[in-house]
Amino acid sequence: QVQLVESGGGLVQPGGSLRLSCAVLGTFSSIGILGWYRRAPGKQRELVATILSGGSTKYGDSVKGRFTISRDNAKNTVYLQMNSLKPEDTAVYYCNAWAAPSFIPYEYWGQGTQVTVSS
Questions:
Q1: Cβ(37)–Cβ(113) under 8 Å?
Q2: How far is residue 31's CA from residue 24's CA, in Å, rounded to a whole number?
Q3: Does residue 32 sit in helix, strand or coil?
Q4: 87: burial class by Cβ within 10 Å (0-12, 13-18, 19+)?
Q5: Count of C-beta atoms within a 10 Å radius of residue 99
Q6: Range 41-50 contact pairs with CB under 8 angstroms and sequence separation of 24 or more
Q7: Can you tell me the mean pLDDT for 47-51?
Q8: Is the pLDDT of residue 39 over 90?
Q9: Nearest to residue 92, comparing CAs of 113, 110, 78?
């Protein structure tokens, strides 16, 4: 059983910062890609950022230069540092992981954490 536990969401003013964390818990032989996605009200889910086990990263166009994804492989945790937040960043943020309980990787999702950017 693999479980993703997110934390760090909340309410922040425009221009502020937040840091999201997601711990991958359970029994697994390996973790591959880790990432963050978000879904704003009335919109489709979109990519925020992903990071490979070796550290290579990819960002959605709307967050480039403002958000930074990182991972601690020893702690099986992925982070999302969000700076210069804008009202349009308001969304539920979901952690995503490809983890292998044995030899076959499966995709897992967190429960989501709300980020609200408002004055």
A1: no
A2: 9
A3: strand
A4: exposed
A5: 21
A6: 41/91, 43/91, 45/94, 48/80, 48/93, 49/80, 50/96
A7: 98
A8: yes
A9: 113
Grade residue 113 by pLDDT with cuts at 50, 70 and 90.
very high
pLDDT value at 57 more than 90: yes
What are 24's two structure tokens? 């991958």
Number of other CB atoms surrounding residue 83 within 10 Å: 14
Tracing tokens 């997110």 back to the chain, one arrives at 6
Question: If you average pLDDT over residues 52-68, what whole number do you get?
Answer: 97
Q: Is 9 helix (H, G, I), strand (E, B) or coil?
A: coil
CA–CA gap between residue 40 and residue 11 (Å, rounded): 15
Q: Is the dihedral of CA 23, 5, 107, 2 positive or negative?
A: positive
Report how far residue 90's alpha carbon sits from residue 78's, in angstroms, rounded to the nearest whole number. Answer: 20
Q: Is 87 helix (H, G, I), strand (E, B) or coil?
A: helix
CA 37 to CA 90: how far, in whole Å?
12
The average confidence (pLDDT) of the chain is 96
Give the span between the Cα atoms of 105 and 53, in whole angstroms: 14
